[in-house]
């Protein structure tokens, strides 16, 4: 049985023909080993991401529409990244630096953002349904049309709706 981070980008124009051979795919969490490929779930419109994709995100600071479902990004410095329209469902962003990041239109349903720094972030149209934002800092964040249904907003700093 394989488990791991789901990571990839949506590419409708180039569907992948077959599921990759998973016999040699390591199960190392993203935050501790960025050299190993991670397994993506089907559908075939998702592409397999490697440590190179993560390196690209960290070097270019953008990955619009990418799939980080269930990713372990706990305590990572993602200051100023552009993850607009990204899928971050069930992602672990606990104590992550997301200041000045662009999450417009991103889906953060059930994500863990406890103690995350979202100072000055663009969260417009983002979906935080059932997300954990306890003790997060949203000072000067743009939350226009963001959804917080069922989210844990206990001790959130600077949230203005």
Secondary-structure map:
Layout: E1 8-9, H1 51-60, E2 66-67
Antiparallel strand pairs: 1-2
Keywords:
single chain; little secondary structure; 161 residues
Distance between the termini: 44 Å
The shape is globular
State the strand order across the main sheet.
Answer: 1-2
* Rg: 15 Å
Average pLDDT over all residues: 75
Q: What is the number of helical segments per DSSP (H or I, 4+ residues)? A: 1
- Quaternary organisation of the protein chains: single chain
Helix content: under 10%
Give the strand content.
Answer: under 5%
Which class of secondary structure composition applies to the elements? little secondary structure
Write the element-wise H/E pattern from the N-terminal end onward: EHE
The low-confidence runs, each spanning 5 or more residues with pLDDT under 50, are 1-50
Largest sheet: 2 strands, antiparallel
Number of E strands: 2
Describe the structure.
- By secondary structure, this protein is mostly loops.
- 6% of the residues lie in helices and 2% in strands.
- The protein has one helix at 51-60; strands at residues 8-9, 66-67.
- Strands 1-2 form a two-stranded antiparallel sheet.
- It starts with 7 loop residues before the first strand and ends in a 94-residue tail after the last strand.
